[in-house]
Amino acid sequence: MQKMTLSEIQYIFETLFDAYGPQGWWPAYTPFEIAVGAILVQNTMWRNVKISIKNLEKIGLLEPYRMYVTSNEKLAAAIKPSGFPRLKAERLRNFLHFFSEFSFDFEEMNKYDTETLRKLLLKVNGIGKETADSLLLYIFKRPVFILDAYTKRFFSRLFSKEAMKTFEKEKIVNALKDAKEMGEFHALIVQHSKAHCRSKPICSGCPLRKVCEFGSELHE
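Below the sequence we write its predicted structure tokens.
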């Protein structure tokens, strides 16, 4: 594959879905838990975030206002399993300060259009493009494509590194029906990247091997 077309994107999505099934992302009970998880998962594994989330739940801090008024020390201690506890506590604090301007109400934030809301989120110290897009997709159900390390590696192998120079996220948005499919697609790419498209790829048994540029060249 050298160029990414709408039909190819749909084929990739359907193939991954057939291979792995629904992923049930984002694994959280509330929108606030999604926001906390998206911040904590930066530079760590999800299994570490799950421990931190459970710690916060046990001490009653998985609620925005209660987390907002707690001490930095208590917050950092609870999220220590996620790594960089002081830094991530500060990032959570920055988000909470921003969130307080909306009375800790996601519906108030949801009144903004996607572009405006994304710009507002990116102004929060500690929220980068990937985290902002995760919040937009999984909390506000906006059809945005998350371009993270997994997706960059996945598409650079599937379509070639050269094709990534002109990568068009809009094509993926247009190829899928809605935010639900967008969220599922991202989760499937992550699952596939763990199963096959690792830093050292496992091409044997890959459901996309016959259409993968990297796999075809490697195994000619």
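The two ends are 15 Å apart (CA to CA).
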